[in-house]
Amino acid sequence: MSHTYEKVSGNKAKLTFTFPAEQFDEALQKAFLKLRGRINVPGFRRGKAPRKMIETMYGESVFYDDAFDMIFPDAYSAAVKEEDMHPVDQPQLKLDQIGKGQDLIVTAEVFVRPDVTLGEYKNLEVEIEPQKVTDAMIDARIAQDQDKVSRVIDVEDRPVQQGDTVNLDYAGSVDGVPFDGGTAQGQQLVIGSGSFIPGFEDQMVGLSVGEEKDLQVTFPEEYHAKELAGKEAVFHVKVNGIQVTEKPELDDDFAADVSDFSTYQEYRDDIVKQLTEQVEKNNRNLIENAVLAKAALNAEMDIPAAMIETRLDYMVEDMSMDMRYQGITLDDFLKYTGQTMEHFREGYRAQAESRVRNELVIEAIIKAEGIEPTEEEIDKATEDQAKAMGRDAEEFRKGLTDSQKEYLKESAAIRKALDLMIDSAKVTEKKEEAPEEEAAQEEAPAETAEEKPAKKPARKRTAKKAEEAAKEQPADE
Questions:
Q1: Contact assessment for residue 217 and residue 232, using Cβ atoms and an 8 Å cutoff
Q2: How many CB atoms lie within 10 A of CB 443?
Q3: Domain residue spans in the chain?
């Protein structure tokens, strides 16, 4: 067997294979021996009919497909490896010549990773809006630790107030008729959280333990259950219990309870240090994204549609997995949000194309610069990966497969290419817009669907809301 290689375009290649007649005839004989037991020929026991008799009865081409499958796949794989091709889709095959006693000639055209013509990728000017550590960030981080050591106290000597956690039973109806999902017992609700439809939580304020009341509410016009949207409803509620969360004082005792520090000031200083490091990392990522986006914009390439579809497949599977962790399936999410899978995928197409474009540009820069990561840089990539997975670096390194080691080597090369671009970039900080400019932006026309991708479902909040909407919370927005 021999083959020839031709680059048809920047993203398509053609292989032409020639299999000698003897090789194809041998494959035909093997196909006959493999299939003869399945072919019925009158006058012969199954598997005993001569090959010529079968070909006469069913046509000479009866064994062509199986013979082709015996010799082509290995030849194609070997040619792809030899020519260092990177197919992104299945090849389109054309049989130029096929027949007993003839050379088999096959043409395979396939989309490959496209050629990239790089534009400017060094000394790029980019503008970012950097994060800064604020008192609000510090307070929010400390509040998280407060929540960990807070205690819940039952309240019996006063009625419901804003911020209380209420345990209640409820039964909802529209025009006196109960509706699906409108009834629950022992439901926990934080008053003021906005979890239930407008008006529900406010009307709970002032009720005491054991008290019952009919709440008059109206479902939002955009409510997920279309049959309830805009409808007036009555919820009969009963308060089973009231609880309040008591948070500890921010003092040295608190610091000792939630950290390794003995004083509150030491604890707070460490929080500031952690947030500063995180903000610096986030700002570095902002610069990285801005530089890479500009380098990708300056480059030219013809991306095969198959590459974008494959990336979309990965993205959808990733989101589907995230939703499953939250206890909801992607099919259910689509149903609750009134979307089709096609519409859902279309919302992420631009993002998928951007990711593919960025990946191709990075690969092209690594090649253009002849970037090869050092052992130290590969070790750093390995340690970072181990840390991200919560693993000991040495133990993690010992269990790596060859493919995983290659992946980490590629990660180190990518990091080096990004550092090359970032270190040469001229970064400026976005100036705060004047009030007139902000007002002008508010009056500007909204982005079209083509300009703005659909929002990605929040990994926790949106999935949880959809799940609750389907189950027992009638007033969940």
A1: yes
A2: 6
A3: 2-111, 151-246, 260-470
Q: Which CATH architecture has domain 2-111?
A: 2-Layer Sandwich (3.30)
The radius of gyration of the chain's CA atoms, rounded to the nearest angstrom, is 33
Q: How open is the CA angle 203-205-210, to the nearest 5 degrees?
A: 100
Identify whether the C-beta of residue 201 lies closer than 8 Å to the C-beta of residue 132: no
Q: Which of 119, 102, 84 is nearest to 18 (CA)?
A: 102
CA–CA distance, 211 with 227 (Å, rounded to integer): 30
pLDDT digits (tens, 9 = 90+) for 434-462: 555 444 444 433 333 333 333 333 333 33
* Long-range contact pairs involving 81-85 (C-beta distance under 8 Å, separation at least 24): 83/5, 83/13, 83/15, 85/5, 85/13, 85/110, 85/112
Q: Is the model's pLDDT at 138 over the cut of 80? A: yes
Residue 43 predicted with pLDDT over 90: no
Prediction pTM value:
0.68
DSSP string spanning 60-114? GGGGHHHHHHHHHHHHHHHHHHHTT--B-SPPEEEEEE--TTS-EEEEEEEEBSP
Q: Is the pLDDT of residue 327 over 80?
A: yes
Tell me the helices (H) and strands (E) count for the chain, helix number first. 16, 11
Assess contact for 349 and 312: CB atoms under 8 A: yes
Token pair recorded at residue 443: 């009056």
State the greatest distance between any 2 C-alpha atoms of the chain, in Å, as a whole number: 99
What percentage of residues in the chain have a pLDDT greater than 70? 90
Length of the chain: 477
Given a cut of 60, whether residue 465 has pLDDT beyond it is no
SS3 call for 340 = coil
Cβ pair 303, 364 in contact under 8 A: no
Helix H or strand E encompassing 152: strand 151-155
CATH class of the 260-470 domain in this structure: mainly alpha
* Measured distance CA(182)–CA(475) in Å, rounded: 8
Long-range residue pairs from 11-14, CB within 8 A, at least 24 positions apart, any chain:
11/111, 11/112, 11/113, 11/114, 11/115, 11/301, 11/302, 11/303, 11/304, 12/109, 12/110, 12/111, 12/112, 12/304, 13/83, 13/85, 13/109, 13/110, 13/112, 14/107, 14/108, 14/109, 14/110
Nearest CA-CA partner of 100 in 29, 152, 169, 34: 29
In the predicted structure, residue 469 carries a pLDDT above the cut 50 = no
Q: How much of the chain is in helix, strand and coil states, percent to nearest 5? A: 50, 20, 35
Fold of 151-246: Chitinase A; domain 3 (3.10.50)
User: How far is it, in rounded angstroms, from Cα 58 to Cα 264?
Assistant: 89
Which amino acid would we find at residue 464? K
First to last CA, the chain: 66
- Written as one letter, the residue type at 114 is P
